[in-house]
Amino acid sequence: MEHNGGTTRGEYACSLVMTDPCSGWTEVRAVRNKAQVWVFDALQYSLGRIPFQVDGLHSDGGSEFINAHLERFCKERGIIFTRSRAYNKNDAPYVESKNWSMVRVYAGYRRYNTEEERRILRAMMRLVSIKHNLFIPTMKLIEKRRDGRRLRKRYSVDTPFARLLDSQKLSDAKKTRLVRMRECCNYFRLIEAIATLAKKLDRAYNNKYHPKEAA
Asked: Fewer C-beta within 10 Å: the chain N or C terminus?
C-alpha cells in the first residue's frame, strides 16, 4: 500500500500488509519505500509477529516481491511462494480488503516521505495490527450453496484471535501465549494510543508545508 499522496514521483513511504485467509490475522508494517531491502526486512518482521507457522506466501507481481532474495528465503524455510496473475487485482482479495480497513482508515491518502512520518506511521500500524487481530471481528465465508436461482452464503463473525484459539492446528503453547497477549492489552488504552499517534502524524505532515503554523 503506497502513501504517495496521488503521485508516484520521488520517494514515499509504503505499508506492507500480510493477511492469513483462514483466521484473518493481519500484520501491517510501514517501510521507507518499495526497495527490496526495506520490503524484505518488513516481511521478516511480520513473519516473526504472526503467532503460527507460515507454510505459504502469495504476493502481487511487483519486483519488490518477485526477486531472488525472497525466493531463496522461502526455499530455505520450506515456504511455498506464489504470485498474483498480471492484471488480475482480485487475486489477493483478503489483503485488498485490509488495505482500507487497516491502512487507509488510519493513515488516509496523504504523502508521507519524512523520517518522522515513517517512524510515527510504523508505531501506529503496529498498534492497529494488535487492535484488529485481538478485538475487531471480521466476516468469513463458511458456506456457499445454490438455492434455485439464488446463491446463498453463510458467514461467521469473529475475531482473528478467537479463530486461532478454535483452530486444531495451533499448539496449546501458542494458544497460551496468545491468551497472555490478549490479557496484557487494554482496548481503550490501545484506542487512545492510536489516536495520539494519528495526531502526531497529522502534525508532522502539516509541519512539512506550514512549519510556523504547526509549531
From this structure: C
0.85 surpassed by pTM: yes
Which of 84, 146, 132, 120 has its CA nearest to residue 201?
120
How many domains are contained in the chain?
1
Q: Is residue 8 part of a domain?
A: no
pLDDT digits over 73-85, tens only?
888 888 898 877 7
Q: What is the CATH number of the domain that holds 169?
A: 3.30.420.10
End-to-end CA gap in the chain: 30
Is 59 inside a domain boundary?
Answer: yes
pLDDT digits (tens, 9 = 90+) for 26-59: 999 999 998 888 888 998 999 999 999 999 988 8
* C-alpha cell, 36: 527490496
Q: Is 196 domain-assigned?
A: yes
